[in-house]
Write a structure and sequence with these properties.
By secondary structure, this protein is an alpha+beta fold. The protein contains three helices and six strands; from the N terminus they run E-H-H-E-E-E-E-E-H. It has one domain. It is 20% helix and 34% strand.
Length: 91
């Protein structure tokens, strides 16, 4: 059997261009950038690489990947995985 996710998530695609425009980040991502780097649900830099703190530990954010937030904190999905599992829900 196959299953489709029915949960609604907040997500943001982090591109090289958007990385340089934090004023355009959603509020929840801006808040993550103010947390202690490496802690769960944090966003920061290490040696010039953008990192998130997730339940799996610190993870590098590749350009074009989606950062999303859920009940356990921040997580990553590739663009292909994201579009395979989610569609825009609207406001």
């Amino acid at each position: 059997m196959q299953y489709r996710s029915k949960k609604k998530i907040d997500a943001f695609q982090m591109t090289d261009e958007m990385r340089l425009s934090p004023d355009e980040w959603p509020v929840w991502l801006k808040a993550a950038s103010n947390r202690n780097p490496g802690s769960p649900s944090s966003l920061g830099e290490d040696r010039g690489k953008l990192m998130i703190g997730s339940v799996a530990g610190a993870v590098i954010v590749p350009s074009g990947w989606w950062i999303w937030t859920g009940p356990k904190g921040l997580a990553l999905l590739s663009d292909d995985e994201f579009h395979a599992d989610y569609e825009e829900a609207g406001e």
